[in-house]
Design brief:
This protein has 12 helices and 11 strands. The model is unreliable at 77-82 (pLDDT under 50). It has helices at 8-17, 22-70, 75-82, 91-97, 100-108, 143-196, 213-300, 305-329, 341-355, 357-363, 381-402, 460-470; strands at residues 86-90, 114-116, 124-129, 134-140, 337-340, 366-369, 376-379, 408-418, 421-430, 474-479, 489-496. Helix 8 runs parallel beside helix 12 (460-470).
C-alpha cells in the first residue's frame, strides 16, 4: 500500500537519489553504510580500549608504588631516578589530586593501593601512609598500551576500508553486471522495440530472465505486452466488423432515403389530388362572382365602383391562389445565398404590418423582432420571407379572431449544435388561444384551416413547410406550456446554418 502523504524526510531522500543511476546509488549507500558501521565499531570498542589503558597504567603505577615504599631513600628522588613517564605526588599535593571518596577509601585500607582515574596525563594509584599521615599518588603513563590501542583503531579502520573495497568489487564484478545491469538492458531494448513497432523483439526471451524480483517484473511485462497484442487483434476484428456494418448501414440508409423520396413524391401526388378538390372549391366562388360581373358588364355595359373593387379583390385572391400553387409545386428554382435572419424577419414583419395595418391598430397587437442582428444563414431569402410572412400573419389573425386585448407576437432565435452541425432555431410565439388539438397533427396539409375566407387560401402553412424542407430544415407547431400560465401557439423553424436548398 503506497503512502498518500510521504513524510518530509522520505521526500528529501527521494530528491537526493532521484537523478542518480543504480551504480552511483549503490556506491553512495554502501559508503554511508561503511562509515556508519566504522563509527559504531569505534564507539563500541572505545570503553574496552580505555579499560585496557587504565589497567596497564594501574599495574605500572602499582609497581612503582611498591618500589617507592620498599626503597630506603627519599620517595621523590626514587621516582625521578627510576621512572621518566611517571608522576609522584606527596602530602598536600597528593591530597589535592584525589576526591574525598577516594581519600576515605585509602584511609580505610592503608595496606593496599586505591586506583584513581586519569587526569589527562595518566591513570594511577593512591595509598595512605599512616606513619607520616600523608597520601602518596603515583601516575604512570603507558605509551606502549596507548600505541597498541591506536594500532587496534587503525586495524579496525583498515579492515572496514578493505571490506568496503571487497564488497564493492564483488558487486561490480559478480552481482550487478549479471543480475541488475543485463536485465535492465534487456527491458530497455524490448521497450525500444515496442516503440519502433518491432514485434519480433518486443518480448524478452525466457532464457535471459533471472529467477528474482527483476525476473518477475520482466515476465509480468511480457504478459502485459501479449495481452495488449491480443486486445489489439480483438479490436481490429471489431473495427472490421464495424466497418462492414457501417457499409451495410450506409446502403440501407441510401435505400431508405430513396424510399423516403419516393414517399414524398407519393405524398405530393396525394396532396396534389387534395389540392385539386380544394382548388375546385376555392375557384368556384370567385369565378361565380367574376362570371356574374362579366354577365352584367355584357348586359349593362357598366359596373359600379363597389363592383369594380369586388372584381379587383377576387382577381387578387385568384393570383394569391396561383402563387401558392406554384410554390407548393416547386416550379420556381431555389436560391442559396448568405442572408441576415434579423433583416429577413424585419422585412416579413413590415409586409404583414402593411397588409394587416387596420387589424393591428384596432386590436392593439404588437409584433416584436427579438432576433439578434448579423446572424447569417445560407438560404433562399425570398422564400424564407414568405415563410415568416405566413407564420406572422397566421399569429396576427389568430389574435384578431380571438379578440384578445394586448396581443403579442414575438420572434426570437437560438443557435444550437446537433451532431457537430450548427443549426438555428427561430420561434414565432403568440399569446392567442393556441392550436386546436384536433388539427395540430394535420396542420401542414393543404387546405387544413379553421378559416377559408378572403384573408387566405389554406395553403400558407403547407407552402411554408415545403420551403423549410427544401432548406433541409424542420417546421414544428406546438402550444405554449400551460403550467406556466401561458397560452398561445409556437411555430419553430429549425434550419442548418450551412444551408441545404434542394433543387
Amino acid at each position: 500500500m503506497t503512502e498518500s502523504n510521504p513524510t518530509p524526510r522520505r521526500t528529501k531522500s527521494r530528491s537526493i537519489f532521484a537523478g542518480m543511476g543504480i551504480r552511483r546509488k549503490l556506491i553512495v549507500l554502501h559508503t554511508l553504510f561503511s562509515i556508519s558501521l566504522g563509527a559504531v565499531l569505534l564507539v563500541a570498542i572505545r570503553p574496552a580500549m580505555s579499560k585496557v589503558i587504565f589497567v596497564a597504567e594501574y599495574d605500572q603505577s602499582e609497581l612503582i608504588m611498591a618500589l617507592l615504599l620498599d626503597s630506603e631513600g627519599p620517595i621523590d628522588r626514587m621516582a625521578s631516578d627510576h621512572l621518566e613517564r611517571a608522576h609522584v605526588s606527596l602530602g598536600e599535593d597528593a591530597a589535592s589530586e584525589i576526591s574525598e571518596t577516594i581519600a576515605h577509601q585509602a584511609r580505610q585500607h592503608p595496606e593496599r593501593s586505591v586506583p584513581i582515574p586519569t587526569n589527562g596525563f595518566a591513570s594511577g594509584v593512591v595509598r595512605w601512609i599512616p606513619q607520616t599521615e600523608s597520601f602518596v599518588v603515583v601516575r604512570s603513563r603507558s605509551d606502549r598500551a596507548r600505541a597498541a590501542i591506536q594500532l587496534v583503531y587503525i586495524l579496525v579502520i583498515v579492515t572496514l576500508v578493505a571490506g568496503y573495497g571487497l564488497v564493492a568489487a564483488a558487486l561490480e564484478v559478480f552481482v550487478l553486471p549479471e543480475h541488475v545491469y543485463r536485465p535492465l538492458r534487456e527491458i530497455l531494448s524490448a521497450d525500444q522495440a515496442v516503440r519502433e513497432g518491432d514485434r519480433d523483439a518486443e518480448i524478452i526471451p525466457e532464457e535471459v530472465i533471472p529467477a528474482d524480483e527483476l525476473g518477475s517484473i520482466m515476465r509480468s511485462r511480457n504478459e502485459s505486452i501479449l495481452a495488449l497484442r491480443t486486445k489489439e487483434k480483438d479490436l481490429a476484428r471489431a473495427l472490421d466488423r464495424l466497418e462492414r456494418t457501417a457499409a451495410d448501414l450506409h446502403k440501407k440508409n441510401h435505400l431508405l432515403e430513396t424510399a423516403r423520396k419516393n414517399l414524398e413524391g407519393a405524398d405530393r401526388l396525394a396532396s396534389l389530388g387534395m389540392m385539386s378538390a380544394g382548388i375546385a372549391h376555392e375557384l368556384n366562388t370567385p369565378l361565380a362572382v367574376v362570371k356574374g360581373l362579366v354577365d352584367k358588364l355584357d348586359e349593362d355595359k357598366s359596373l359600379s365602383i363597389t363592383e369594380i373593387a369586388l372584381l379587383a379583390r377576387v382577381v387578387g385572391r385568384l393570383e394569391k391562389l396561383s402563387d401558392g400553387l406554384l410554390d407548393f409545386a416547386r416550379v420556381r428554382p431555389p436560391m442559396n445565398v448568405e442572408a441576415d435572419i434579423h433583416r429577413l424577419v424585419e422585412e416579413a414583419k413590415t409586409l404583414v404590418m402593411l397588409d394587416r395595418s387596420d387589424s393591428l391598430k384596432q386590436a392593439g397587437i404588437q409584433i416584436a423582432n427579438k432576433i439578434a442582428p448579423e446572424i447569417m444563414l445560407s438560404c433562399d431569402p425570398d422564400r424564407l420571407v414568405q415563410v415568416f410572412v405566413n407564420l406572422i400573419r397566421n399569429a396576427v389573425d389568430a389574435l384578431v379572431n380571438s379578440e384578445i386585448t394586448g396581443g403579442q407576437v414575438n420572434l426570437c432565435a437560438e443557435l444550437q449544435t446537433r451532431d457537430g452541425t450548427p443549426w438555428i432555431s427561430i420561434r414565432v410565439k403568440d399569446n392567442g388561444p393556441g392550436i386546436d388539438s384536433a388539427l395540430i397533427d394535420r396542420l401542414f396539409e393543404p387546405f387544413v384551416s379553421t378559416r377559408l375566407d378572403s384573408h387566405g387560401t389554406g395553403l400558407g402553412l403547407a407552402v411554408a413547410n415545403g420551403i423549410i424542407r427544401e432548406h433541409g430544415g424542420l417546421l414544428v407547431a406546438t402550444n405554449r406550456s400551460a403550467d406556466q400560465g401561458n397560452t398561445g401557439a409556437v411555430f419553430e423553424v429549425m434550419l442548418p446554418r450551412g444551408g441545404r436548398c434542394e433543387s
